[in-house]
Amino acid sequence: MGVKIKRIYDGPGDGDGYRVLVDRLWPRGVSKEKAALDAWLKDAAPSPELRKWFGHEPERFKEFAARYKSELDSNPAVGELRGIIKEHSSVTLLYAARDPKVNHAAVLAEYLK
Question: Model pTM?
Answer without folding.
Answer: 0.94
